[in-house]
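Notebook B, p. 112. Complex prediction, attempt 2.
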Amino acid sequence: MTELVETSSAPALSLGRRLEIVPIVLFAAFAAAPLLAMLSGAEGYVLSLLTRVMIFGIAAMSLDLILGYGALVSFGHAAFFGLGGYAVGILASHGIEEALIQVPVALAASALFALVTGAISLRTKGVYFIMITLAFGQMLYFLATSLAAYGGDDGMTLASRSLLAGSTALENDFALYGFCLLCLFGVYAFSRSLVVSRFGRVLRGTRENALRMEAIGFEPFRYQLTAYVISGMMAGLAGCLLANQAEFVSPAFMTWQRSGELIFMVVLGGLGSLHGAIIGAAAFLLLEEFLPEILHMTSFFLAEETRSHLAENWKMVFGPLLILIVLFVRGGIMGLLRRPRHG
Amino acid sequence: MTATLLFVQVLNGLQFGLILFLIAAGLTLVFGVMDFINLAHGVQYMVGAYLVAAFSAWTGSFGWALLLALPTALAFGLLLEALIFRHLYDRDHLDQVLATFGVILFLNQGVKFVWGAAPLSVPVPELLAGSVEIASGLLYPVYRLAIIAAGLAVAAVLYVLVNHTRVGMLVRAGASNAPMVSALGVNIQRLFMVVFGFGAMLAGFAGAMVAPILSVEPGMGDNILILAFVVIVIGGIGSIRGAFLAALLIGLVDTVGRTFAPNLLRLVLDPAAASQTGRAVAPMLIYIFMAAVLFFRPSGLFPVKR
């Protein structure tokens, strides 16, 4: 059986090797960006935007792990974002600002939440799975809005960023950027090794046909649940980072729209390639950030009033753009990159 | 005192549940018959409310506004179907979710563009203004009773349509096995269109009915959409009967729960803690309820698909 898998996946692997250039370029770009930011003159702005891109990249990648490799559409993934953020916020408000304590607590909380909700959600299939994960996400959202001691609806501002082994290094934007890049790379490397491992192959098997996997002696539930827990922990880590980047935590971290955005990032980038999710997150956030200005610039032939009107209502362009992408760009951005090579 | 409060809350819950049913009915049919996840169903509710606001400002009468809004909502639904949704039926659920998410973004911004970001208000029609005394010393707004009556009437009409007409029979058959219906020589494309337009009109009707008691604003459909999904999932996708029962259950659990969760908790906790946890638990109740239903019945209360 192992041989069969090897032979059938061989062409995909050689194609994959050719595509390795994409993650290398991607990480090189992230590594070079701070230098360019220094030259641009608006380094604070550029750094914070790119830090957000990397953080959402981690979250989107965590979703890709279960969505792209396990076909589990979690519509409540933003809940883990919130768990990570609130772990940082709540511990900080009690005077524990050490990241080496906050992050493990956040990971443990995410793992526990994923274990309990995953065990229940995985009883259901397809659309019911989408809805039950949404339900759990909403529960956590409403729980957060009712935490009056921790800001309730309004959320809470962090007094400072987390300490890293006692030092205040993360206060520096460059250091936070570097730390996020390190996390992104670590999570990416871990996920890559996970999906090519035996575990990853079983997971992909359950994506294709859970019944057959069962017939050859695997229990899909255990593999899916493990993947769900790992994915939740990764998203929890992203939540910790986002809280530090924004120095603010609020229930808005885990609205269902945020979960929807995460799904969109993964699909936009291309399912089941991990770095596709990072590219999707980057494309989404940069588009959201710059579309108003792009619209303003490209409509130079219109009257000034109309131009600012257009820039203000950029979502009326963003929405149709989304629809067009879904209708005409199958396989997301990674699909576009792959296509010419297929001929 | 508590008994009258409970009674009023039950009425409110019933009204909320029936509004939810109007939205969920279309959603569950579209989902059940076409296997199409339409996130944009919530904005059709919003469009209904905006249409009634615009038409009632123009004609000065809620009745005329409603009469004009319904066919417009229907036409709008059919337009969306022809322009976008038709191309998504054979795509997987993920594509459908994303494309309809794009429709939400566009329309939420679109109504802001046309009518401004400020909430609009629609006056309660004069005929239905004021309150009636439904029990000694208990006043209840007539308009809310009218919503309940309208909701029940639509439910009855739907029951007859779905269970005792030829189109209804095709819809039920489509919900349990669409390819088979198509193989038997039914024009499934046209059936889809009818179902879709009808669902859009029902959602628009719900929006129109609540326009006088809620503020009409961009994004008003987003949260109710999620509730409508909760309803159809609890009821079993494609089942009108399930949607009806689940909508009433959700309406009652939500409305009554918000009032009485703190009171009930007071029996076991001290008052301050009870009101704190009560406020935390109340909005979660429907989701806890849904998770519990799916735990015991993973495909809803009345599964249609076999």
